[in-house]
Design goal:
- This protein has four helices and six strands.
- With 171 residues, the protein is of the alpha+beta class.
- Strand 5 and strand 6 form a beta hairpin.
- Helix 1 packs across helix 2 and helix 2 packs across helix 4.
- The relative contact order is 0.20.
């Protein structure tokens, strides 16, 4: 996609599977994988203004009985699971390549190679009920559409990917 995930209107896309690898907050509170022009989130707003609302919107517009898979660090998934999605349907171990600076750090501290998991959630009645319950429990009130979404905005259609709103282009 061309836009940042929190600014996409997922209702305008046609998709039946999602695989994402979002940035995360380390235990120290530092955000990993900062991208150019990305909003600077705090430890709290990272989840409440970015990650959880984005996952909520993605799942809402995902057809029933389809999957969203999230490749992330366990600290991220602990928050996602506790506050929104519950237990994943499938967990797949994933050994990654070295992260920047990892080899030197491992040599000095004798630590294990960095690894993550891929957590997959099937959108079914059980997941939808869990999301509703979590939203009430944590008093979450996410909108289905991003603040920047504009009705009748110019669209780009990509074969196999559906349609996509294009920002900054006049019709």
């Amino acid at each position: 996609l061309i836009e940042y995930a929190e600014e996409v209107d997922y209702s305008k896309l046609d998709y039946d599977f999602v695989f994402t690898s979002p940035p995360y907050i380390e235990k120290s509170g530092r955000q990993t994988e900062r991208y150019k022009n990305m909003k600077d989130y705090t430890k709290d707003t990272f989840y409440t203004e970015f990650l959880l609302p984005t996952i909520y919107r993605i799942i809402h517009f995902l057809p029933d009985d389809k999957y969203v898979c999230i490749n992330t660090h366990k600290t991220n998934m602990e928050v996602i699971s506790r506050m929104l999605l519950g237990k994943p349907s499938i967990e797949i171990p994933y050994k990654t390549k070295e992260r920047a600076g990892e080899q030197k750090r491992r040599d000095v501290h004798k630590t294990e190679r960095y690894g993550e998991m891929i957590y997959c959630f099937k959108k079914d009645g059980k997941l939808k009920k869990h999301i509703e319950k979590s939203m009430r429990q944590y008093k979450l009130n996410f909108t289905l559409y991003p603040k920047k979404s504009k009705p009748n905005a110019p669209m780009l259609e990509v074969k196999g990917l559906g349609t996509k709103e294009i920002s900054g282009i006049e019709a």
